[in-house]
Design goal:
13 helices, 287 residues
């Protein structure tokens, strides 16, 4: 089965390659648009990955101008342009994820580092837990709530597919103690958490209350790394309006350092599993 790919990531990669080719040809943007007889905005949107689709003829004109003659290189860039047009499964949930969606990047991520302070991370949620979360927010119809649950469950496939993504989670103890839905739903969720934590590609560490102050008294965030060195890491910060993507190197580095600090303050994976087990036993012992 073909591994899912990210159209947005392919578009970013194509843009970076084209910008590099122009630089190698010692051409400025002004010289390029003059030679191609394009509006300046057209080239800018291509090089910043804002253009959803690059026509094959336009791509060939750029490659000819940049003197990219290697047939394999040209074929690879055309393949990137073609892949950038293919819609992922998440496009059918556009009203859930928005125009720039996290699953788009998760599809090709090799490693995801996630800090969560209040709830179980979405990639590790059960359907009933997710449903209870959605119902606890603003009023929505049952149909809308179920679509959001289904969309979230499909995201989880990246952890169990062939060549799964590696997930590193730093989870505040508050997320374990806050009962979402009911004690039964919460116990089932935590048992699922223990099950997933046994997978070789998942590492789960709990940040105990006893730690006190720590580096991540911030919004929940994820740092996504990709296997291709041409694809720079990206940060996703969860917000009330859906989420914010950060791509500047200093922003990515700051979140990476913060995650490392939180990991250092957290319990080991084995200690974390024991704490989760204790919480499950407490929930199941309630009358």
């Amino acid at each position: 089965m073909q591994r899912p790919h990210s159209p947005t990531l392919r578009r970013r990669r194509l843009s970076a390659e084209l910008k590099r080719a122009r630089s190698n040809a010692n051409l400025t943007t002004t010289q390029t648009v003059k030679s191609l007889k394009w509006a300046a905005g057209k080239l800018s949107k291509i090089e910043t990955a804002e253009t959803q689709t690059i026509k094959a003829d336009d791509l060939d004109k750029m490659l000819d101008l940049y003197q990219v003659t290697d047939p394999d290189k040209r074929e690879a860039l055309h393949a990137l342009a073609k892949d950038a047009k293919v819609r992922g499964w998440w496009s059918k949930y556009r009203e859930v994820f928005g125009p720039q969606s996290l699953p788009d990047f998760e599809a090709e991520a090799s490693t995801i580092r996630t800090f969560e302070g209040l709830v179980i991370p979405g990639l590790l949620q059960t359907p009933d837990y997710a449903r209870a979360l959605f119902q606890g927010g603003r009023y929505t119809s049952t149909e809308e709530s179920e679509r959001r649950v289904k969309a979230r469950m499909e995201r989880r496939d990246i952890l169990t597919r062939f060549k799964p993504a590696s997930l590193r989670v730093a989870l505040d103890e508050a997320a374990l103690r806050r009962v979402i839905g009911s004690p039964e739903i919460m116990a089932e969720q935590l048992r699922h958490l223990l099950h997933m934590a046994k997978l070789p590609n998942i590492d789960l560490q709990v940040l105990p209350f006893s730690t006190g102050a720590h580096a991540a008294f911030v919004a929940p965030f994820s740092v996504l790394d990709f296997p291709d060195p041409l694809d720079a890491p990206i940060v996703f910060v969860d917000t009330a309006s859906g989420g914010l993507f950060l791509e500047e190197p200093d922003e990515v580095e700051a979140h990476g350092v913060t995650f490392g600090d939180v990991q250092g303050s957290a319990m080991s994976a084995a200690q974390s599993a024991r704490v989760i087990t204790e919480v499950v036993e407490a929930l199941e012992s309630k009358p």
